[in-house]
Each structure stands twice: as structure tokens, then as C-alpha cells.
Specification:
There is one protein chain. By secondary structure, this protein is α+β, with helices and mostly antiparallel strands. It has 10 helices and 11 strands. The longest helix is centred in the middle third of the chain and has 29 residues. It is elongated and about 100 Å long.
């Protein structure tokens, strides 16, 4: 069976359903997904001395987001691709009065750079700086973050930039703000999931690490329903000794498998047993979604079509659901519970009512 940790992981895992992404200039023809142009643009806006006119807005937002111990002046020089002595270069350096932030930017690629050499070179070149911070900027948590480097979530950082701009920089006449807004949206678009996907990159990695658990959970799910397929007919047979029907699986889409039992081969007397997954309320919006277990039954009225269901069709703990489209003669009833033993008792109640109605109909 599943351990408590397994159950907690399955319970807490959440899927995403993102809204349609906004189109940007980068989608039209620019190479917005390349890491080098992204780094160049980010360096431009992080530098308060550049022509964008935003002063320290983006830099200050960045420093607050990464939560490093930096309390001095925001005056700095922003150096991009500073080192040429290595085949792969440091992406971005932010150099303050007594600190240096080294940033390696990864959008799609895994972190396989010579990080230790980067760190040694930066520390050697800036021996006069008291604080050194090494950041790995990526839209997912790498499985192999280098020792001494801190992962910064690209998605959350750029969402913070976006919110800050909305609050403080609404001057659309400034072309650099318009461009920055589009740049931020482009990064958000390409580092979050595409339309229709349900998992982020880091979620895919997380799920991959739990594949054994998921296979085990799937096997348990199948065994659960296979067992129900045997147990429910036995519960019916307890109250209907002459019961000759069989159980089958019915696909209820987002609600998964239902167990449906046709009580008699050539007659419309069915019982359906549903185990409702949590969070299914968006699929079927009615009272049934409040319960873990739902039992439904339907039967055909042997009399001429009527405006309402015959009173002797409804079991005492059940509610009327709806008539079918078969001339108003097939009627559905349902009941719900959160307890498994009570659900089996509802099955027996439904079978008892079907047996009583069928017997009375045969006498008339």
C-alpha cells in the first residue's frame, strides 16, 4: 500500500491550466528564446545608467527578489560576458561597491558549464569585494545545481518585474518601457507551459522522480475497481437471490471508472456505483459532487408515460435525478455518502427497490 509520504505527495501535487498567452514582438520573428539576447536585454535594464530612464527600478526589484545581503548604494556597472579566457563565458556580472553578483542564465539548457572555474575567476578578479553571490537563473529547479550557486526561478522573477512595472511605470510614451513590457511577457510565455499543457518543466522532473509511485498508485486504482466489480454484484445478490446480471466498467470521463450492473438481461433495471475523485466539481455541477461515493439506479415505468415518476419507484434514501429521453418512461434516482460501508448499503437499498417494483409490476 502507499506510505503516508506517498499519499501526501499525490495529494499536494497540482496541475496547471494556464490562460492563453499574449503574443509579443518576439513571437513575430525575433529570436526571443535565445539565452544570449535575453541576457543582453536583462543587463541593459538592470543597469540604472542606461538609456531606458527607469533608473534603479528593475535593479532594485531584482535585488529584493533574490534576497541577498546587499544594503549599499545601487550604483553599479553591468558587465555582460566579461570573461573570455574560458570557452563558455559567464553570462552576466553585476558589480557593486562591495559586492559582485554572478548570473548564469539557462532557459532550456541544463547547467553543464564550468561553474567552479567561473567562481574562481570572479573571486580572483574581484578580490576587493566582500560579498560574492552566484546565481543560476532558470525556469525550473535543476537537479544538479552547482555547489555554492543559488537557483532563481525565472518565471517568478519576471512576474515580479511585470507587477512592478504595472504599479510604478505606466508611461507608455517611453519606448523602452513598451519594449520591456513585451520582453517580460515573452520570457513569461516561453518559461511557462504552452497552451493546453498541464505541467511545468520542474513538475515534469518531479513526476519523473516519482514514476515508481505513480505506477503503484495506478495499479492500486485498477485493483480497487476490479474488486468493486466483484463486490457490488454480491451486495445486490444479498437482497435479490434470483439476480442474474453482470457488472461492467463504464467511462465517466473526468470521474473515471463507474461500475454499472444490469440486473436482468432484457430489462432496463441498472445500478451504477461511482467513486468521485476530489476536485471533480468542475465536471458535473450538482449535489452529487459533495460525496465520495454515489449510487444511482434507473428503472423503466411499465405503465403509460407519466408526467412524474411513480412514487413506488423511489427508495427512501434516494433523490429523483431525471427522466431519460425514452418517452418519459425511464427514471433515474441517486444517493451519496462519504463512507464505503454506507455506499454498499445504498447498493442494497437500490436493488431492494428494483426488486419490489419489478415484482409488483409483474402482478399487475
Amino acid at each position: 500500500m502507499l506510505t503516508s509520504d506517498d499519499q501526501r505527495w499525490l495529494r499536494d501535487f497540482k496541475l496547471f491550466n494556464h490562460a492563453k498567452q499574449a503574443k509579443t514582438f518576439f513571437d513575430i520573428g525575433a529570436r526571443g528564446y535565445y539565452e544570449n539576447p535575453m541576457t543582453d536585454i536583462l543587463a541593459f535594464y538592470l543597469n540604472p545608467n542606461e538609456a531606458h530612464g527607469l533608473n534603479t527600478l528593475i535593479l532594485e526589484t531584482f535585488l529584493k527578489f533574490i534576497e541577498r545581503d546587499i544594503n549599499d548604494s545601487l550604483e553599479l556597472s553591468s558587465e555582460c560576458e566579461s570573461y573570455t579566457q574560458f570557452p563558455e563565458n559567464v553570462d552576466l556580472l553585476l558589480v557593486g561597491t562591495d559586492w559582485v553578483i554572478t548570473i548564469e542564465n539557462k532557459v532550456w539548457h541544463t547547467p553543464e558549464n564550468p561553474f567552479q572555474k567561473y567562481e574562481m575567476a570572479v573571486r580572483q578578479r574581484y578580490q576587493d569585494k566582500q560579498k560574492h553571490h552566484f546565481l543560476l537563473l532558470a525556469p525550473y529547479r535543476p537537479s544538479n545545481t552547482p555547489p555554492g550557486w543559488v537557483w532563481i526561478d525565472t518565471r517568478k522573477l519576471f512576474a515580479k518585474f511585470q507587477n512592478k512595472l504595472k504599479m510604478t511605470a505606466s508611461n507608455s510614451a517611453n519606448k523602452w518601457i513598451v519594449f520591456l513590457e513585451d520582453f517580460i511577457q515573452n520570457i513569461i510565455n516561453m518559461t511557462t507551459i504552452d497552451q493546453g499543457w498541464k505541467m511545468e518543466q520542474d513538475q515534469l522532473q518531479d513526476v519523473a522522480s516519482q514514476i515508481d509511485l505513480l505506477v503503484k498508485a495506478k495499479d492500486l486504482y485498477e485493483e480497487y475497481h476490479n474488486s468493486l466489480k466483484l463486490i457490488i454484484p454480491k451486495s445486490i445478490a444479498e437482497v435479490l437471490p434470483n439476480f442474474t446480471g453482470t457488472a461492467r466498467f463504464a467511462n465517466w470521463e473526468a470521474l473515471g471508472k463507474a461500475i454499472r450492473v444490469k440486473l436482468y438481461p432484457n430489462e432496463d433495471f441498472d445500478i451504477t456505483f461511482l467513486t468521485i475523485p476530489s476536485g471533480s466539481g468542475n465536471t458535473i455541477r450538482d449535489e452529487r459532487m459533495k460525496f465520495r461515493f454515489v449510487v444511482q439506479y434507473h428503472m423503466t415505468c411499465t405503465e403509460k408515460p407519466v408526467d412524474d415518476y411513480p412514487a413506488d419507484m423511489k427508495a427512501s434514501n434516494f433523490s429523483f435525478l431525471r427522466p431519460s429521453e425514452q418517452g418519459g418512461r425511464l427514471f433515474w434516482f441517486w444517493a451519496g455518502t462519504n463512507e464505503y460501508p454506507a455506499a454498499l448499503d445504498l447498493v442494497r437499498q437500490a436493488a431492494t427497490k428494483i426488486g419490489e417494483y419489478r415484482a409488483s409490476a409483474s402482478k399487475s
